[in-house]
């Protein structure tokens, strides 16, 4: 029995004598998984919440631990009223656990800031995960030596194309092991109490049932309604306060502008050193090509990118060195609040032009626009894949089901006024961040 | 009121309207303090405890928060029975808070591994702290604009030479704000429950009294004896289990061997790139000279060193690249346990020679010897400075006093059998770590 | 410094050297306050939640502790933008603390079950509190020796007629020290995680401002909106799950039926012994008279009533002894669920008549009807007193205000969609409880 | 699945579909077990710690929950190195769980105060438990309908005479499910943080092994040493601070003196009403006879005794009414501290005689002597039963074993200096409590 200590779950145990859990331990020991120790779970949130230093590594362990607990509970509470075979869940325990431990294997450093830089035609971390699982990697080898074709299956669960719908939804849905772990973990480590809910009760009221022809994982209608609400609310509060915190968003804008400046300068012929892995990735012409460069992608970590941010502090280009110094020293821009809101920001272009002249900083580095949006609970049923245009929130947009004693299913927003209220209302923050002294210029000009 | 969220203390608040706390906030914003965001509190412990990613930055905030609470409690419970003026504590609130926020400002990356590399004549993190506080830094400027000569005073508290003994001991003694915060924090973040004790009760029973001519901070004899024991025991357990965990110690040995190899290779004329700040520091001839290079020291962070570990994975030198790959992939050596214990390890030199021949790895990179020792409670009264030969445990080795109602002081180990038992018994682990396959060779040879 | 240990707040401290806090300690030592040790906070909830044994005594300490913390926070964050003098809060600290410690002094045993029995013309626990404070009691003496007329003032705060509106609302409003303590306490002790919210943050964002001519205590608009929602939701969940739990409600119905039977029997000339204090109280003709009997009321405790329940187990009347045995043994009735809901219950009268004939139990002891309702957030502005017809929820039905930086107030349900959704929707449970074997009869008859 | 919410363990679940757990649920529903709702776990501690209202009912559920978890862990970690069959543990799961749920069924009200009153020749709560299990009770019927002779077996486990030594020790030994639950529970509910230890880790390192011919439950030597120490220390602190708190001890002395006075008065021919159950029990001539009166014993609860304490407040005997009023109002005696300690108290008899003359209170009601002692860790191996003269600490005085990888056992105090230090040192408090004004008399006389 191998035990990891964990601030959220206390002990996360894997049984070395079980073939399946031994495989999980081998995956944890793999080079690709060890890399997740160097990817912060919350990107730039540590600037806002000094405790938010936790990594994708710890989160992946936590999500796998929850997957084990979910499956145990489902085994315990086979719903007698519904003629449902849960074999697809219990027989495929290996699949569920491997998908859980590997679901974030394709996450890159620096949250989404870097992702956008190397994005060729909408490549996201899930595509990278799939590529790493299928590619010539230690992880792939471990999966294939369990069963030929197994890597493919794991990838399908992560892509949400696997035909075992229940396994797919245990990993990514409105109420999955991934988001349960990250809410609890992010809440605890940031120290912002919003993400708490009674995990033990939630697991206690887990049920399976049928919705149409599909087996679905849901909650007991009578005992689970309030914990379902509490859980959706926790997510809503975390977006409102933590994930979309202005300081965090501003830091991410800084990072994106830094990468943009580097590319701009290189395009203009300047020599700006960057991680050679990144250079390689940027050379790819399309999605197909960039994904083939996954060995380089695997060379990227938070520490490598921070090293270059630090190095670029010494650049001759004052815009680049300025942004880097400010990011490293957490000497960020301030939100520029006007009574008219976001749209009025566009009207301060003239002022920004003035500021550009005074300080030699191009307008696009003066006005950092950020438009963050998410949804705490989505209504539309997304078949097996998220839609392209859902942006950041694409990962898991399905519904939460509540089952009554006869096994009949009700969708959460149908039975909860509160959830119905927030289901289609996006959480949205449109902001502009400007240099601290920009405001003075504004006052001088407009009084 | 500026509030930091914190997983340990929930809210850490500083009042922007108070001159003193405004100064603390300015220090936090300084370049030198922001650097602590990139120094892990526990060096390599994250390899053992995935949650142990917390930084010196968060710890320093926590220690300062405790200093505020300690001083408030002391103000509340002026001991009427003893003719003690606590003015030296309350009047010097600014001094106490500044010393608390800055006590780890001189910490370098990679725990003590790197420290040993650049050590010229016993320079340690406290000497760096003093240098940074007195040098041409933002921190120095902030302190001096509060009061001329103030930086010097703060440095004296950290060096334990300041004549306000009470302030010195609030920061570094057997029962100080520094170690209270780190025990609670390390315990929570590692997930190892050993470091817990009832902080609220400990603060509640804080007392001041006189020991000889000195004002001392201690605990109420009647109400504080058990919490004092519990606190010392917490520290004892943390050393036994967390700080001296074999995986953590082995990783630190790896880091030291990597640095040793780099220097060895450079001495032999190979070109091995290293952080230019480190190169600069290594060029110093003595303590005086190296301390003057503090601007370079301030350029060192965890991410910079990890970047080079990653880079050295591609070195032509197989010893260096091997060690680096193993460290990054957490593919470490195993403890070699013999019935005869540590001393018998020396007798396996012959075997190591054999292994060297087979694998081309010099003996000093095959047998990694580690001798960790500390003491949960020291007996001898150390005047104002720790002694040279106390090594790692030098920081604070004084006694805990318990005051009865008449203000008379008793030393903890005199009134507690338990503490008396452990006071002079070093916690000590002597180990040798060897490559995984070394054991096979051993069995082949010795059966 | 006197410290009480508390599972919710850890330490609750009162300073013996402060005149005001010394008064609080004297009140705690008074005979009338010590009686609260024998009144469970949650009546019959211990039948549902084995941990819910906590008393009005502990809750009153907790509410007073919160009152201290609230006032400290208000002192720290005087709102500069509003021309508000908070003197009425800080000068009247004594008043606020005394009202907090005494707000439940008039609570009787057995939750509301007994209250209804001795109710003559709507006397409730607040009227008793006022009577005890003004009467010839130790508590009255302590208050009056602080300041002549002070007992009256304290009573006015509890009655919500005192002209210091802010003090009144700190004790009883939508966001008061009373309900904050009971939500946290009930949640922790029942073990039902619903009532949790981040107390530290809630206190951190407390603000005062003006609404019309009144000083109001509210929260910071920007930082406090989500905690306000979280707090209202916590209350909503506690009502849904804990306070209105069917087992708890059924036990309370049992108690009411037991008291009803005792009175019925006595009215018919049977001699049924009951607590002489209760006998005395029942002899009163009107509100005026019953309140004058407060010394008898003060003789009532949970243990006294349970003693008689136990004694009545031996009654010759089989209805009475049956109900008592069943209550003591927690062998309660079951909820009778029909598809048609509560109203259809009325149609099973015929069946109950049949059951009466078989078992000799009058219909009114076969069908126990319970109609529980509350509201998590009320909309209508209740001037200084609750209205007569609000029943159980009368205590505090005002609004929560959020203040922006300029001091302008917004009412919570105006700025929160979620709260707006639930504000006028009563939480309501209409149930009928029937003997376990009643259902069989139903099936026999209706199939 | 029936779930109890619990403040300590969150959810305590029993599976209705399992025959064994269904039996546990039936026992919980029995009249005899429901009675435990009215027996406080900590007697008079609620006078010292307002939160300490928890009952034997909740503790018994907790101990049973831990028994389930212990057995699960033992099943998971069958020690391969030792040729041990754990069948005696797993096969006898029913026995272990029934013994756990019933181990406190014989506890009477008022802690040990009343026990001493009705003690005829050393009858204690364990003898009552056995009697209730074997007698004509609902509990007996439930056990016997599981298997004929099963009640006897359960009684043997509680008496520690059952030949399945491992089951016996899981319930009562130095490291048993009983004391683990009560330490955690008492610590949480009193709010005194001393009893905390990492339960998850303790369960994780549970091992079984052989000591001589016996199967023993112990801990992993390497991983369990510190948690074993921490656990023993937790118990030590709880005795020092909570169980032997002077206020609690004084209240218990009051209760004993009240019962003594009642008997004294009745012996002198006064009519003093007392619970008829108690009257009946007091009429028994010897152990055999008193145990046969168990139906009367089962009629005793905390509320019944408190009812009489309250009633006796109106007694004509001023000594009795005085003591009762003081106990109910928590207006207790004060500890009389002299420099010479306990023995010198005997020399103040003269003074007490004087006080007796002034106040008409016999000396034995003026000087309340209390001699509390326990041991945090006992050394001598107690075969299957505790010895007669161990008093309060008799329940479980055996050793804690630590097993190395080869299954070899070491006794805790042999490998831990700390435990060795405290193993034979009794925790002992000898005190005398006197009326508050007695001290004045003392000063008047002796200055």
From TrEMBL, chains A, B, C, D:
<dbReference type="GO" id="GO:0006203">
    <property type="term" value="P:dGTP catabolic process"/>
</dbReference>
<dbReference type="Pfam" id="PF01966">
    <property type="entry name" value="HD"/>
</dbReference>
<dbReference type="Pfam" id="PF19276">
    <property type="entry name" value="HD_assoc_2"/>
</dbReference>
<dbReference type="InterPro" id="IPR045509">
    <property type="entry name" value="HD_assoc_2"/>
</dbReference>
<dbReference type="InterPro" id="IPR050135">
    <property type="entry name" value="dGTPase-like"/>
</dbReference>
<dbReference type="InterPro" id="IPR006674">
    <property type="entry name" value="HD_domain"/>
</dbReference>
<dbReference type="InterPro" id="IPR003607">
    <property type="entry name" value="HD/PDEase_dom"/>
</dbReference>
<protein>
    <submittedName>
        <fullName>Phosphohydrolase</fullName>
    </submittedName>
</protein>
<keyword id="KW-0378">Hydrolase</keyword>
<feature type="domain" description="HD/PDEase">
    <location>
        <begin position="52"/>
        <end position="192"/>
    </location>
</feature>
<dbReference type="GO" id="GO:0008832">
    <property type="term" value="F:dGTPase activity"/>
</dbReference>
């Amino acid at each position: 029995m191998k035990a990891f200590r964990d601030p959220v779950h206390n002990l996360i145990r894997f049984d070395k004598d079980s073939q399946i859990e031994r495989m999980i331990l081998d995956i944890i020991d793999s080079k690709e998984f060890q890399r997740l120790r160097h990817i912060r779970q919350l990107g730039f949130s540590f600037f806002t919440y000094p405790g938010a230093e936790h990594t994708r590594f710890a989160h992946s362990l936590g999500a796998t631990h929850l997957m084990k607990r979910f499956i145990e509970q489902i085994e315990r509470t086979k719903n007698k009223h519904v003629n449902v075979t849960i074999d697809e869940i219990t027989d495929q325990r290996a699949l569920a656990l491997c998908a859980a431990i590997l679901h974030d294997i394709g996450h890159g450093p620096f949250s989404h800031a870097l992702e956008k830089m190397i994005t060729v035609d909408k490549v996201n971390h899930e595509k990278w995960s799939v590529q790493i699982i299928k590619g010539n990697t230690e992880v792939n080898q471990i999966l294939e030596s369990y069963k030929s074709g197994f890597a493919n299956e794991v990838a399908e669960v992560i892509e949400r194309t696997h035909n075992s719908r229940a396994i797919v939804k245990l990993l990514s849905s409105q109420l999955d092991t991934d988001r349960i772990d990250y809410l609890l973990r992010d809440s605890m480590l940031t120290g912002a109490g919003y993400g708490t809910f009674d995990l033990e009760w939630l697991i206690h009221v887990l049920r399976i049932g049928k919705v149409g022809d599909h087996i679905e994982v849901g909650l007991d209608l009578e005992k689970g309604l309030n914990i379902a609400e509490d859980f959706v609310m926790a997510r809503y509060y975390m977006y409102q306060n933590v994930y979309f915190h202005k300081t965090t968003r501003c830091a991410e804008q800084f990072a994106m502008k830094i990468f943009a400046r580097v590319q701009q300068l290189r395009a203009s012929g300047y020599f700006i050193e960057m991680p050679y892995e990144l250079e390689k990735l940027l050379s790819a012409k399309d999605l197909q090509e960039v994904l083939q460069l996954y060995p380089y992608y695997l060379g990227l970590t938070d520490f490598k990118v921070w090293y270059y941010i630090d190095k670029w502090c010494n650049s001759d280009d004052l815009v680049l060195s300025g942004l880097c110094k400010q990011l490293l020293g957490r000497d960020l821009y301030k939100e520029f609040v006007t009574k008219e809101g976001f749209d009025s920001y566009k009207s301060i272009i003239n002022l920004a032009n003035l500021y550009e002249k005074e300080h030699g900083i191009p307008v696009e580095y003066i006005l950092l626009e950020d438009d963050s949006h998410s949804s705490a609970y989505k209504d539309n049923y997304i078949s097996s894949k998220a839609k392209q245009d859902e942006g950041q929130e694409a990962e898991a947009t399905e519904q939460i089901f509540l089952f009554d004693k006869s096994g009949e299913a009700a969708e959460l927003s149908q039975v909860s006024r509160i959830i119905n209220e927030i289901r289609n209302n996006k959480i949205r923050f449109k902001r502009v961040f400007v240099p601290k002294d920009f405001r003075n210029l504004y006052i001088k000009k407009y009084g």
